[in-house]
Amino acid sequence: MSEFRYVTDQLSVAPQISLADLAAAAAQGFRLVINNRPDGEDPAQPTSAEVEAAARAAGLDYAYIPVRGGPTPEQVAAVKVAHSEHASNNPKALYKKRVTVDDVLASRMICKPLHLLDCCTESDNATALIVTSAARARDCRQHPVLIESVVGRCSKPRTDNHFQHGPITLTAGHYGREILWRNAGVLPEDIDITGSYDAFTFTTLMQLEDYGFCRKGEGGDYVSNGTIRLGGKRPNNTSGGHLCEGYTHGISMVIENVRQLRHDVDDGCPMGPDGRRVHTHDYREGGCRQVKDPQLTANLGWHSPGTGSAMVLRRA
Amino acid sequence: MQDKQFDYLGMSLQLAAIDEVNQTYFAHCARHDFHLQACNACRLLHYPPSAGCPWCGGAAQTWTRVQGQGTVYSYSEVVQAIQPGFKPHTPYLVLLVELDEQRGKPSEHEALRVFGNLVMPDGQLASPEAVAQVGIGSRVRMVYTDIGEGFSIPQWTLDLDTPQPEPWRY
């Protein structure tokens, strides 16, 4: 039997309760149970669905509001690890060496909590995109890629300094996603590849959360569970991104997604008789970086935490 | 008003004559008398100083004295200084301090959050021992680093007159 600790006349709290506690809570006059523990933290804990069923059976209302801790330095470092794997298969990347989580955490501290390998480098380069009508694009030599949705310079409700306006944990993507997905007519789970602004490792986490690829607070898990790696469910920054390919203020990730949607990424795969690479989808070092048959990509841009742009592209 | 130029640890700080808002802001700082603009329409203060009110868009403002006391809302500990003049002072802290005044207005997530370095009470960048004591939740008060004739930078030092909570540090 769990102890219900009195806080106010309206509220008591308890550590992990058992299903048997719910009938006792109803008998003591409680009316609503709020479950703040995320499912799956401990194999022994009842799931939210089980707690809800027992609560409803006892005549109690139920709300599930899981509260999670922030990402760990190891999880944040996983962004650099994934992007370095991608860069190792990009002959044009500035940093082609694969790194580990330990390499990131052992690199010298620049500005806590960012290590050297959590940061990109400034680099000199030039990038360009050619945008034309869909009709004209179909008449060109390359397979066309269509713009499905654009969010142009979306800001938080107030446009001056992000740090004055709350909640500061919500960045522009939280607001931009309402425009992005509605205009595209697709949802985050439909996207095959993401391109995030990764001047630092952490910006990728915040964008993936705020655009809805995972729930708020789950970005650390999302970037470290294999999802964003080549061969994973939804690779991110397959060129290596700003952390490894080179810094271009976000635009190189749009170019990379266009290459991916043309199914014609420039990597280490052998050249076929038609002058196009024969992609092996073997993502080991020095190998392929072409995702298998991608149809939809999302680019998540970042001007500052409070302002950003985004785009969904589709293979024609 | 005239163009002003100062040197701070090897950095050139410039105040243009045409920048009336910052000329006035720093004139108050030079007198160690912190002022922010209050909007004549919605009456709310804002930071940093600007030509318009971020809360309601009002253009007319009145410079208003503000108490320089608050709580560290967030911070960054700089280990690798970019400016050569800061290298002897690493690690140093950049603090974002939530003022007691107008805290939680106009919404629970909003406040006047004022940047500054952690300094000793005399305005010099803080010692490594002092840096190690300060984090999110620390209580601080405003002091000034005097740069030159008529120019001072508002900074933050640990407030030793109030109880200090255990700060959160990375």
Automatic annotation (TrEMBL), chain B:
InterPro entries recorded: ChsH2_C, NA-bd_OB-fold, Thioester_dehydratase-like
Every ChsH2 C-terminal OB-fold domain range: 63-144
Protein's name in the database: ChsH2 C-terminal OB-fold domain-containing protein
UniProt cross-references to SUPFAM superfamilies, sorted A to Z: Nucleic acid-binding proteins
Species the sequence originates in: Comamonas testosteroni (strain DSM 14576 / KF-1) (Pseudomonas testosteroni)
Pfam families, per database record: OB_ChsH2_C
